[in-house]
Amino acid sequence: GAVVSQHPSWVICKSGTSVKIECRSLDFQATTMFWYRQFPKQSLMLMATSNEGSKATYEQGVEKDKFLINHASLTLSTLTVTSAHPEDSSFYICSARGLAGFYEQFFGPGTRLTVL
Amino acid sequence: DAKTTQPPSMDCAEGRAANLPCNHSTISGNEYVYWYRQIHSQGPQYIIHGLKNNETNEMASLIITEDRKSSTLILPHATLRDTAVYYCIVRARAGGTSYGKLTFGQGTILTVHP
Description:
The complex is a heterodimer of chains A (about 120) and B (about 110).
Chain A: E1 4-7, E2 10-13, E3 19-25, E4 32-38, E5 45-51, E6 57-58, E7 67-73, E8 76-81, E9 90-97, E10 105-107, E11 111-115
Parallel strand pairs in A: 2-11
Antiparallel strand pairs in A: 1-3, 3-8, 4-5, 4-9, 5-6, 7-8, 9-10, 9-11
Chain B: E1 9-13, E2 18-23, E3 31-38, E4 45-50, E5 55-56, E6 61-64, E7 70-75, E8 84-92, E9 108-113
Parallel strand pairs in B: 1-9
Antiparallel strand pairs in B: 2-7, 3-4, 3-8, 5-6, 6-7, 8-9
């Protein structure tokens, strides 16, 4: 089956620093990747959609200058949380969808971000 | 995309069938029903999807009513490892600005007990 990985699986950083999270599709080419955020005991909230080679589309209320998304290749997307603050602490999950005709989204294992 | 309604929690005995209901009364003709599950602190896992016919795979069966306003996910022989949050999601077929987006509700917490 389709495998999506994320790195790192967890990260602790100081307030004010930036953190980069990688999302990779290991055995398929992902034309579209999605980034979600999940707070404790809550459901997943879609943050943004990125298509390879183009700018990401952010959901309402998500600051695009704070959550920088790059999808430079068909197997890699990155999410950078800039100037992180404690309220950015969350579980960040990516998903990937393949080429036309392969519509299912496959999710990564998630990255736990803790900002001190 | 149409909204879904699921019970907040369900219990099931190990080895028995788990039947998880989902109501999607406002579903439109071009929308699929998808089921995902999320085991604690992991990313969601795709289970199954369907349009109007019943579907079965190695994980589960999906029964969709004839009017498509509700569906049931069936795990035929639940195990302790099936304890998870199960999400029923209605997703647009190809095309449109919302294509590909998955909108997660609160889901059903399924607890399988020995």
